[in-house]
Amino acid sequence: MARLRREQSRAAFQSTAQRNLAYTCSEIARIVSALGLSRGVREQASSLFRTAQSDGLLVGRSIEGVAAACVFAVCWLTGVTRTFAEITTVAQRSQRKVQTMYRVLNRKLELPVPPRRSQEFVLGIASAVALPAETERLAGQIAKQANESELGGGMHPAGFAVVCLEVAADE
């Protein structure tokens, strides 16, 4: 019976590529749903997977890792702040493998990844340490003004966000 079930599922698709696409699209939908992301993110991640598949980037790599990397890449490209840790908690691969696959996608497909700004990190850090909303708002304004005047160059955006939160908390 197990052999018949396996052959039945294989016969449903004309090729391995179609079977991988169907499985990955369902995996992407699962990850996006678990993270509470929009349908647009799911569609863009599926499209990115199709591009990676057509460019032959899947050979020797896990489909779950590629799916998680596609979701992370789309989050990064669209400005939705999600970390590797958040994505790998719902994905079925380790953070290291997802990061490696993301680097492969980014390098081979030449994704137009914008640099992160410090105000994108303010919300996550403020909620992690349970700061008041007023402090968070003020820190966001400070970070935005600093980015516009190009202060903090060379400093990691998350570190600069911490500095902005500290300044806001002191006021």
Main beta sheet: none
Helix content: over 70%
N- to C-terminal distance: 70 Å
The name of the CATH superfamily of the largest domain reads Cyclin-like
Q: Return the CATH architecture of the largest domain.
A: Orthogonal Bundle
Structural class: mainly alpha
What percent of residues are in strands? Answer: under 5%
Secondary-structure element order, N to C: HHHHHHHHH
Brief summary of the model shown:
The protein is mostly helical. It contains 9 helices and no strands.
Report on this structure.
With 171 residues, this protein is mostly helical. The chain folds into 2 domains: 2-109, Cyclin A, domain 1 (Orthogonal Bundle); 119-170, no CATH class. 73% of the residues lie in helices and 0% in strands. Helix 4 crosses helix 6. The protein starts with a helix and ends with a helix. The mean pLDDT is 86.
Question: What are the defining features of this structure?
Answer:
171 residues; mainly alpha; Cyclin A, domain 1; 2 domains; 9 helices; 0% strand
